[in-house]
Amino acid sequence: MATVIREPVPEYRFSRRALVQPSAIRELLRDASVPGMISLAGGMPQAQLFDIEGLREATLEAFRQVPRQALQYGPTEGQESLQRALAAHLSQRAIRVSPGSIQVTTGSQQALDLIARAFLDEGDRVALEVPTYLAAVQAFDLRGAQYLEIPAAADGAAVDTLEAALAADRLNPVPKLAYIVSNFGNPGGASLSVERRLALLRWAVARGVFLLEDDPYGDLRFRGHAPPPLWVLAQRMPGAAAWCGYVSSLSKIVAPGLRIGWMVLPPRVANTVTRIKQALDLHTSSLAQEIAARYLLSGKLERRLDAVRRTYAAQCDALCAALHDRLHDEITFSVPDGGMFLWCRFRECVDTAVLLAHAREHGVIFVPGAVFYPRGGDPATLRLSFSTCSADELREGVRRLKLALCSYRERAIATIVPVSKRCP
Ligand SMILES: Cc1ncc(COP(=O)(O)O)c(C=O)c1O
Description:
Number of strands: 13
Strand content: 5-15%
Bound molecules: pyridoxal-5'-phosphate
Oligomer: single chain
């Protein structure tokens, strides 16, 4: 019999920053692949809605028209063809920019990382809405950021609380950066009202805080009128254009596998970011950029987006109706006008991290809300995603969630510690 030699576990001396917490959502992805599991946890677009044929044609065209360019190194700022296509795409949202002022990034996640690297030293603060996009916090954590939290409100982050929060917290420095998901936030689903957009811009200018607008969901509006992007408002407000940047992505509207994101930044910030990107990855995949450019210029995206919006609207309505029918005494939520997420809160004290274990047993998963707060948050909250499940699956998912809630309550009654004692 062969002898197994056990190697000692190596004691690598990793940097402190490398010990960043793994994303709770990525961990949940494993559960999502269990056969029969209904996942209300993922933040992914629906794969059935990918325009496979359109992207295949765009790929063939890239190989036919610019094969060597598509396979060669390219400029750090991005392929000219994609910059032009993105400028045309952005003009539909009233963002009028020259192609050369668009910095292409490897997903918008890289844009967040680049901005964090450009602005943050250890201990610098970032003002952000809570709950907020978890992987943005991870990118800021990697730079050793601290946070000034802006509580969420029905019409977006309660930015009117910022000055009071600063005054209450005088010992800490004024944030260098403010991060906001302006439309259909992940996880909150809310959009910042025009009044709050203007107030946030005024605050950023007055305090010298660089304001980063992250907008991957703006094109997924299925109801109501879109408020102007912060970036657009900033161009009209004296002194504000220099303090505002815009980030978005093709991930939610075309396909995340392309890894195409972009930024529009004031010139000095753009120069700094481009230098950092050069050191990180030289440039985003030339091939993916040439494919994306051809797909955008083909005009197929608008038709595809109509289908995506209609599908998500129907799924969102199905989820809201199921929650209303089965759990309306238990849960509160506001109905989103777009995006992929529904943010919920149990009326009574339910610890959703504990509930998740019961839900798993009943074949449904969701994301407990506390993970979306940098310093821990309300344990009675949860994020439900309606993008990937059919209406029938969403209804079944809510039925299972109700069963999970019953077994959570039964278990809580059976244990010595009452559930209410576990919540603040
Ligand atoms: C608010 C927000 N910003 C940025 C991203 C990153 O997306 P990507 O890197 O795929 O463009 C996501 C992804 O879920 C997101 O929800």
